[in-house]
Design a protein that fits this description.
By secondary structure, the protein is α+β, with helices and mostly antiparallel strands. The protein is 30% helix and 22% strand. It binds 2-oxoglutaric acid. The site of 2-oxoglutaric acid has 10 residues, from strand 6 and strand 9.
Length: 288
């Protein structure tokens, strides 16, 4: 595999250690003007579509669902620099959703690891160990103050503990939504422009209860082409990226999706997980 020359990391050794051990990292990356531009783009897009849903999960890099005004977040050098620090060079965007919820919406998920789409007999316990090279990172970039992400720090590098096992039962995937609280669960509260990067094999959940304020959060996933893919690589629906669609995009977004297509072509083995994921998204989350 071609190795590119690593550039100096924007992350300190302490930050890298924190991410490796705790499974998350918070960094302020967008200024107020950029946050305001993205909020305006979301509002314009909702108005233009006549969008009335009070809660949605919009796959904004897919044709027909695209929000052109926020797509260039996938080329943001600050975001990519952190991803390079965490994963390595040649960062490939792999997931892009807009989490939207109006004030008053009741938003709750059960605690889970992001292996929900994988058949039970294909979940490998070795994925949840300190030795596993997890070549994937998710990022939530809030455009409004957001306290909906909860995580159990360090749980990506170990098996479920007794308290977690008691609520997960006979699965590694998800606990019931009304399960008792986890004592080690930590709420991550982030301000507009302050990104949280996290290992999505950690036990985590989205949970706001009844939202006091509107939630607008851009959610992305990244992989590094320097390393073998994990099963989570393959979230974007690359089959929808026609030449015509790619031509319609801003140059940096087009280049990011082109790099995604090249990387996907190199790893046909992830297609089976892509198919599971698409089925899962359609069934479990009413994505728009
Ligand atoms: O709402 C959130 O921020 C949580 C998202 C989440 O749990 C996931 O993408 O797996």
């Amino acid at each position: 595999m071609t190795q590119s020359t690593p550039r100096p990391s924007v992350l300190s050794d302490a930050e890298l250690t924190f991410f490796r051990e705790q499974g998350y990292l918070v960094r302020k990356l967008l200024d107020d003007a950029t946050v305001a531009r993205y909020v305006a783009a979301v509002d314009d897009s909702r108005r233009e579509r006549g969008e009335t849903q009070r809660m949605s999960n919009l796959q904004f890099l897919q044709p027909g669902k695209a929000i052109p005004g926020i797509q260039d977040i996938v080329c943001n050098e600050g975001v990519l620099d952190v991803c390079r620090g965490l994963l390595g060079e040649r960062i490939i965007v792999d997931g892009a959703s807009l989490f939207y919820g109006d004030a008053g919406v009741d938003y709750r998920q059960g605690w889970h690891r992001d292996v929900l789409q994988v058949p039970d007999d294909q979940v490998d316990q070795n994925w949840f160990s300190p030795d596993y090279h997890y070549n994937y990172v998710q990022m939530n970039m809030p455009l409004t103050t957001d306290g909906c992400l909860w995580i159990v720090p360090g749980s990506h590098r170990r098996q479920l503990n007794a308290e977690e096992r008691a609520i997960f039962g006979n699965t590694e995937k998800m606990a019931p939504i009304d399960a008792p609280e986890l004592g080690d669960g930590k709420q991550i509260v982030v301000q507009p422009g302050e990104a949280v990067f996290y290992n999505n094999y950690a036990v985590h959940r989205g949970y706001g209860g009844v939202l006091q304020d509107r939630r607008i959060t851009i959610h992305l996933g990244f992989h590094s082409a320097e390393h073998a893919p994990t099963l989570h690589f393959g979230v974007l629906d690359h089959t929808e990226y026609s030449l015509e669609y790619l031509e319609s995009l801003a140059p940096c977004v087009r280049e990011a999706l082109r790099a995604h297509l090249v990387e996907r072509a190199k790893h046909p083995e992830v297609n089976v997980f892509h198919a599971y994921h698409q089925q899962f998204l359609k069934k479990e989350f009413k994505t728009t």
